[in-house]
Amino acid sequence: MAALQADIARPLTDRAHMHRDQEANVPNNGREADNGSFSWPIFVCFLFLTFNSVMAIIRAQGEMMAVAFVSFSYVDLVVLFVFLRMYERAPAGSGKRGWLKIGIWTLTTLLTFAFSYKVAAVMPPLVAVFVWIMAFTTVAGGFLAFFIYKEK
């Protein structure tokens, strides 16, 4: 009872710092246990992505470039989500996080360029140039945010 009264009497800012410090000691900051499983919403999203990719391949009716684009996009997204999950679970400041950052940036860059290529192909030339400028700006911004900018 005395501990509860002391906690109530403690200023709110002290309690917030204490709560944050206690959360830091909990594995995964209170998230689900790190058993490698996915939650059901993530599973449903992957099922939806897989279903749509298969349907796009079927609708392509054997056109190899369309099948290659859909297959590449699907594999890229799945690997990207795996890398993001590994990045979130890697210890802060570890070399593994650095390598995963490179992989994540590379995968997002490839996906950006793949979609930009498909969009620019059906646009008028001036709009296609604008699409490519946006793609390169996005990739450069991602590079700056991931590798150049450091939090203070």
From TrEMBL:
Keywords on record: Membrane, Transmembrane, Transmembrane helix
InterPro entries linked: DUF6490 (IPR045501)
Superkingdom of this protein's organism: Eukaryota
Residues annotated as transmembrane: 38-58, 64-87, 99-120, 126-149
Protein name: Uncharacterized protein
Organism: Urochloa decumbens
